[in-house]
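Title: Request for sanity check on PRC-barrel domain-containing protein prediction

Description:
We are preparing a figure and want to confirm that the structure record we downloaded matches what your pipeline produces today. Could someone re-run it with the sequence below and paste the raw structure tokens into this thread? We only need the token string, no images.
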Amino acid sequence: MKTKLIAALIAAALAQVALPSQAQVAGSQTLGITVQESTAILGGWSIKKSILNKPVVNENGERVGVIHDIIVAPDKSVSFAIVAASQFAGVSHHDVAIPIEQLDIVGGKIVLAGATKAAIKALPEFEYAKMPATPKPRADFPDHH
């Protein structure tokens, strides 16, 4: 199940890329995604609708946090889920990074086995890196395509 979760998260993350506004016709598109990628997306699901802001529970069904973000590494792999250990009125008070391999989908719920609210709160707080106002061009990355 974890392999399927990781594959689905990657497909969903890649599906969030802006696509051309015209209809995609097999064998005729020059920008965007390939026909094979388009077919794979149809079998996937949306991170925004299925994962973000959804509760994380332990194996006993106890709520231990909420997923606020998914981190996609430069190599396009889904690497971490950012889980809010506690929140009030939708505002996070303590975000932590959880390796995606530790999460599973069981009975339609996002499960982090062995977790408790106290254990999540005890993890170091995750902070986003300070990003420059303008993103770097793709050519500036070592493994650009």
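Thanks, this matches our download. The chain has one domain: 2-127.
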